[in-house]
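Hey, resending since the last one bounced:
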Amino acid sequence: MTQEKMQIGEISKPRFEYRTFGQNFDKAHFRMARLSAPIPEKVWERHSDEIYIISRTNDINNTKIRDGKMDIKTYVQTVDGLEQWNPLMKGEFPIKAEVLVNEVFPAFMVEMPVLENDIITYEEFIEMIRQHPDLAAVKVHKQRLGYMVNNSICEFGEVLINGAKIVTINSESTEVDDILKTVKDVGLEGVENINYLQAIKRVIGMIDKPLAN
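The structure tokens again:
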């Protein structure tokens, strides 16, 4: 079978991912940058502002909002310590109440609040989240530097989680072996694989556990 050639910024079949978060990955970042193949200029550096909806009772559905659009991914499986996530739903504000009832809140795995309108605006939705005892709307700013190592899509990023600055580094691909080789080559073997849901929960205190360093 021919191995798929990864393209940064393009949709492929569902990828596996290694990612970790902490205070300092300078050595791994240096090696990642040196080992990287040339990449398109448009992904040299990217910035984004997002809202992650964090649920105290859910670790398998990852929900974020960017530019008024909601994106939910769901956990599929772990292979050799690498997680695979698939799209679950996409929505845009204003959003129909029936979508919140049938798709969004079931993904949060929490009690459904009372909806008074058939159409819910972004502002109404965020206020609903803030009022819910088991949910949190967390502001996340990302500055991401893109790379390509061993045909895996990589990045190093500085992340602000409700203003708290941490760093992240990752490798993702449809091919597990390419990621594992990249993790070894940049010196991250043995460093905990932490996804965005877990990292945010640790930073905001929803989970009493430190980051990787």
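The mean pLDDT is 94.

Sorry for the duplicate.
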